[in-house]
Design brief:
Blueprint: H1 2-36, E1 39-44, E2 52-53, E3 59-60, H2 62-74, E4 77-82, H3 85-94, E5 98-105, E6 113-122, E7 125-129, H4 140-143, E8 148-151, H5 155-162, E9 168-171, H6 174-182, E10 188-191, H7 193-201, E11 210-215, E12 221-228, H8 233-246, H9 250-259
Parallel strand pairs: 1-4, 1-5, 8-9, 8-10
Antiparallel strand pairs: 2-3, 5-12, 6-12, 7-10, 7-11
Helix pairs in contact: 2-8, 2-9
């Protein structure tokens, strides 16, 4: 009987050792991941459909869903602050290890951030009220004759300044631009169709009231997730690699379809 038990143990011993080794490796990996996991400061703004602050204070939106999946892959914990864009942008410019979204990537910003991954592409138009502008503009120069508004610290604000627009009104967010337009305090706004579509869905304006007067082709741009310039290089590399992985997963296309974002 003892001989049989010894024989059985000798047969099973490699299997037992192998399984124990797998368990030890799994436990060790969990400890490594737990040690590596960090709390990451995240800054963004309210900008539907990318980031939406709901009535209960929770965040929703296309970019929010993507960022949630990104953090699921990195196993870090986001500490998110929803701020006026100028404050969010300044925070990401001046503090290390800060993740910011949704951020347009352009020449002026290229060396100011570590670019994690692309969220979408955006086309920009100058818009006016259909009742005031029955015909589209032939050139950007025509728009310079009118009062125009855009949120401060946006690439659109830099564009207007760079191209010598004289009657520029800077606001905190797009909702204010719509209000000023309807009250005849400005004549034009500059925005993407997707943002205006979301404002129309919130009943802030009837989309049929607006007409695109001219596309600002210079502002066609890619919208990104980025990390601040002073961020740890290992952190940057880890987030870039996990974003590359994310875009290959079915969930990424599902999120785009859910929010109707190209």
């Amino acid at each position: 009987m003892c001989y049989i038990n010894t024989l059985v143990f000798q047969v099973l011993e490699p299997v037992i050792i192998s399984r124990l080794a797998v368990c030890v490796i799994a436990i060790f990996s969990c400890f490594i991941n737990a040690a590596r996991a960090q709390t990451i400061k995240v800054v963004t703004e309210h900008l539907s459909p990318f980031q939406i602050v709901k009535n209960n204070g929770n965040l929703d939106g296309y970019s929010v869903d993507v960022i949630s999946q990104l953090f699921a892959l990195t196993q870090d914990t986001p500490q998110t602050q929803v701020l006026p864009w100028a404050r969010a942008y300044k925070t990401a410019l001046t503090e290390p290890n800060v993740l910011i979204y949704s951020l347009i990537r352009n020449r002026e910003r290229e060396d100011k951030f570590h670019w994690v991954g692309q969220l979408t592409t955006q086309r920009i138009y100058i818009w006016g009220l259909r009742s005031k502008f029955p015909q589209p503009f032939d050139s950007i120069e025509q728009a310079k004759e009118y009062r125009i508004s855009t949120p401060q610290a946006y690439t659109t604000a830099a564009y207007l300044e760079r191209n010598d627009f004289k009657h520029v009104y800077l606001t905190g967010q797009y909702e204010q631009n719509i209000g000023m337009l309807l009250k005849d305090r400005i004549d034009l706004i500059i925005s993407s169709p997707v943002v205006l579509h979301e404002l129309a869905k919130k009943k802030l304006i009837d989309s049929s009231q607006l007409v695109p007067l001219i596309e600002v082709t210079e502002l066609e741009s890619n919208v990104y997730v980025a990390l601040s310039k002073g961020s740890d290089s290992a952190l940057v590399s880890r987030y870039q690699k996990q974003f590359e992985r994310l875009v290959t997963l079915p969930i990424f296309e599902q999120i785009k379809a859910k929010w109707q974002v190209d």
